[in-house]
Amino acid sequence: MTDASTPLPRRPGAQALAALGLAAPEPSPADASVHAFPDGGLWRTEVPSVEGPECLAEVLKESARLDVPVHRISQGSGVWMLTDAEITEMVDACADRDIELCLFTGPRGTWDIGGSTRTDSGGAGLRARGHDAVAGCVEDAVRATELGVKCLLVADEGVLWTLHRLRAQGILPADTTLKVSALIGPVNPASYAVVERLGADSVNIPSDLALAHFTEIRRVSRAPMDLYIEAPDDLGGYVRMYEAAELIRRGAPLYLKFGLSKSPGIYPYGAHLRETALSSARERVRRGRLVLDLLGRHGADGGMSPLGSRLPGPLSRFPLTDDKD
Questions:
Q1: How far apart are CA 195 and CA 180, in angstroms?
Q2: DSSP state of 300
Q3: pLDDT tens digits, the chain, 325 residues: what are they?
Q4: Is 250 within 8 Å of 218 (Cβ atoms)?
Q5: How far apart are CA 48 and CA 65, in angstroms?
Q6: Distance between first and last Cα of the chain
Q7: FRET label pair with 150: which of 90, 124, 173, 180, CA 20 to 30 Å apart?
Q8: Could you tell me which residues are beta bridge partners of residue 258?
Q9: Within its chain, how far is the Cα of 247 from the centroid?
């Protein structure tokens, strides 16, 4: 969201390469997103894979030490892997810092008895298999929101639509936000628009989408994107730090997610993975500092949403229908 009076960020290596006759072409204004968060910001930050109160305490301590602003903390193992006391502790700690806490909902196909997810095709992936899995996701959502959680992470389109309808009926609080997992993230503008209309308030897109794909999506939807600037290995291990400014320019409004490559998977998390979880939590914050430093050096660190911002603004939805019709 830029205009003619807004100076473009410096591109990496621009001056040195220009001296050799290797200057990059100027970015086209037609590629830029025209959207922003309702507070006017272009980007927010997220630290993912924060699996419990102890990991959260490490993230909060390290973000204060390294001066890394955090808008959202997300967890991957699921509501069901936390006790009420642990959830309450995380809710209170995030509330003290005015940070949105996002917890994953319910059973997923990769942990289910179905064998298709372990085949080369991956089967149905993380989607909720059968009525009982959907019911588990709903149970998690109701429990988490009753304990004060305001953001729910979802990995199934049917669950997304169900939770959106429950939100509309007041069974879930009206200000609950629904976040689509990177593991089912849409890869084209048509599917992105569909998940927005199903109730998504922010949408993880796969980290390997090309820059042109960001522009294509922004031509049909203003729903916030969530993007791993560094992706964990099970999502490809991509490191896109030098592209951060251009990703913001094309993808705003955008959550910069500070993931971590070369780190083992820790879902579902337990004490047996404690040292890995704590050390990787600290390193994710450090990776965030590296991204912010790069943005600063390139003159692209402006446009961050105020800390404490969380709502996405008005989005397009499918009409709600009466089940009796």
A1: 8
A2: -
A3: 545 445 677 888 888 888 888 888 888 899 999 999 999 999 999 999 999 999 999 999 999 999 999 999 999 999 999 999 999 999 999 999 999 999 999 887 677 776 566 665 555 567 888 899 999 999 999 999 999 999 999 999 999 999 999 999 999 999 999 999 988 889 999 999 999 999 999 999 999 999 999 999 999 999 999 999 999 888 888 899 999 999 999 999 999 999 999 888 888 888 898 998 899 999 999 999 999 999 999 999 999 999 999 999 999 999 997 655 4
A4: yes
A5: 18
A6: 43
A7: 124
A8: 230
A9: 14
Nearest CA to 126 out of 234, 46, 233 is that of 234
Residues in the chain: 325
Beta strand 225-230 with 254-258: parallel, antiparallel or unpaired? parallel
Long-range contacts formed by 52-56: CB under 8 A, 24+ apart = 52/82, 52/86, 52/90, 52/269, 52/277, 53/86, 53/89, 53/90, 53/93, 54/274, 54/277, 54/278, 55/277, 55/278, 55/281, 56/90, 56/93, 56/94
Q: Give the global pTM.
A: 0.91
Name residue, tokens 């709600």: 320
